[in-house]
Design a protein that fits this description.
Blueprint lengths: L1 H19 L5 H10 L30 E8 L5 E7 L4 E9 L7 E11 L5 E9 L2 E5 L11 H12 L11
Antiparallel strand pairs: 1-2, 2-3, 3-4, 4-5, 5-6
Length: 171
């Protein structure tokens, strides 16, 4: 009986020490901290950092204090929010439920966001999302090149043709 108690105690001691072991080595913790641009945890064996990390600026910025964060959500589907950070990023949106309780019910969201591009250019995007899809406008959104004259003429010609009779659909 004493032998069984000793074996049980030994197994519990091994399991307990395995569970209390660190899950990540200091090297893994430092690698994870670099991935997320956070200061690495300092272990007793690791040398102390030379200087505290300074906040990063405009390009490649990882952290910025939130200066404003207003949110209002209602149970009927209407909402609005606005935010602004210390690095000049801001955004706002409003959402309403259009035609509630009908077959034409749709969520309509309008808003905008702005930031400063890495080259210093201010960027502002206005958007709307409704039953017609998502549409955005702003100087930073790429525009397609103009349609070549030959293709435009071909499209005009196709539109000028009389409609073709519908072919029966066989299954």
């Amino acid at each position: 009986m004493a032998n069984l108690q000793f074996k049980t105690l030994a197994v519990l001691a091994v399991v307990g020490s395995a569970l209390s072991a660190p899950q990540y080595s200091t090297q893994n913790q430092q690698l994870r901290a670099r991935q997320y641009n956070q200061p690495a945890p300092i272990s007793p064996a690791a040398p102390a950092p030379v200087a505290p990390l300074a906040p990063r600026q405009a390009s490649g910025e990882a952290f910025a204090r939130i200066l404003k964060n207003d949110q209002e959500t209602q149970f009927d589907g209407n909402f609005n929010y606005a935010y602004e950070t210390e690095n000049g990023i801001s955004g706002q949106a409003q959402g309403i439920l259009k035609n509630p309780g009908t077959q034409d019910e749709a969520q309509v969201i309008t808003g905008s966001y702005s930031y400063t591009a890495p080259d210093g250019t201010p960027v502002r995007i206005n958007f709307i999302a409704d039953e017609g899809g998502f549409r955005a406008e702003g100087d930073a959104i790429p525009t397609p090149p103009p349609i070549p004259v030959e293709i435009a003429r071909a499209l005009d010609y196709i539109r000028s043709l009389p409609p073709q009779p519908q072919q029966p659909q066989y299954q």
